[in-house]
Amino acid sequence: MSKTINWGIIGCGNVTEKKSGPAFNKVKNAKLNAVMRRDTSKAKDYAQRHGVPHFFSDASDLIHSPYVDAVYVATPPSSHAEYAIMAMKAGKPVYVEKPMAASYADCLKMLKVSEETGSPIFVAYYRRTLPGFLKAKELIDEGTIGQVLAVNIRLSRPMNQDEQEQTWRVDKDIAGGGIFFDLASHQLDYLDFLFGPIVKANGAATNNNSYYDVEDTVVASFQFENGVIGSGLWSFNTHEDAARDTLEIIGDKGSILCGSFSHEPIKLITDQGVIEFPYLNPENIQYNLIKQVNEAILNKNDCVSTGISAARTNKVLEEIVYREQLSVIS
């Protein structure tokens, strides 16, 4: 492989417009060289607007193109496994949007092919590289709040129009579940980054709306391998006055309070009072992780978000929402 990695994007939709796509041309030794969308006119439009030399309407054509060294899969979760496996079998590293796949079973298939082919797979859990979330980890690792005892998540808001219109994010066959799978995956993965794998997870999920069938309200309890315990409440059908986005990490000498999506300053709360730390996000929020992925491919460096860690998050999501079904199947 050359010293510059030529990237190709499969599925150049909204997430690639600012969050990720432009970052590939800003990272040293990386270039966004091709994009694919089934609608040729939309693929061409994206390519022209972002200065991308090549565009395709067929994923296989992009994957097997000599202009592409590595593939970013940015389609809905149900096709992640198909495209990632195709790319890895073609000998090309893969960066996949989160959640890693629509099911834990698909994640395992992806990991198996990665091991067989030697092609690495990375997943877009970029909070593991953002300054604000890294600051929270630093405070914990330095013992600023003492021994961590528990964590608590609250994410609630009213239903939005996309959900009322039953987009793919609330279609289990495409997304794996509802908005919980889309958003809680970020939170649970970040906690995995802080405390290691979740080894026990239980939950209950209900649907309280007439627009879609998957869960809109979830409660969960979980325990990490280091003994820290946690709980969470997610609801996407509340009144606007009940909207909350809080992640609280509780220690025996203080606590850390932050939002998972609001990106308001992180608060360190101790006997000395409250200290705030800004998030300082990059312009393209996936930039830091994409930089790390690119360096991992070129130089065999470690990367904080791999298929192995991301698959664990898929497993926990299913244990929380579908435990009853899983137990029946098993």
Write a structural description:
The chain is α/β, with parallel strands linked by helices. It has two domains: about 5-125 and about 285-300, Rossmann fold; about 130-280, Dihydrodipicolinate Reductase, domain 2, CATH 3.30.360.10. About 35% of the residues lie in helices and about 25% in strands. It is built from eleven helices and 14 strands. The protein has helices at about 15, 40-50, 60-65, 80-90, 105-115, 130-140, 160-165, 170-175, 180-195, 285-300, 305-330, and strands at about 5-10, 30-35, 55, 70-75, 95, 120-125, 150-155, 200-205, 215-225, 230-235, 245-250, 255-260, 265-270, 275. The strands form two sheets. It has an eight-stranded mixed β-sheet, covered by helices on one side. A six-stranded parallel β-sheet has the order 3-2-1-4-5-6, with helices on both faces. It is globular, with a radius of gyration of 20 Å. Mean pLDDT is about 95; it is low at about 325-330.
Short note summarizing the structure:
The chain is α/β, with parallel strands linked by helices and about 325 residues long.
Q: What would you give as the CATH superfamily of the largest domain?
A: Dihydrodipicolinate Reductase, domain 2
Helix content: 25-40%
Number of helical stretches of at least 4 residues: 11
Q: In the residues, how many domains can be counted?
A: 2
Please identify the top-level CATH class of the largest domain: Alpha Beta
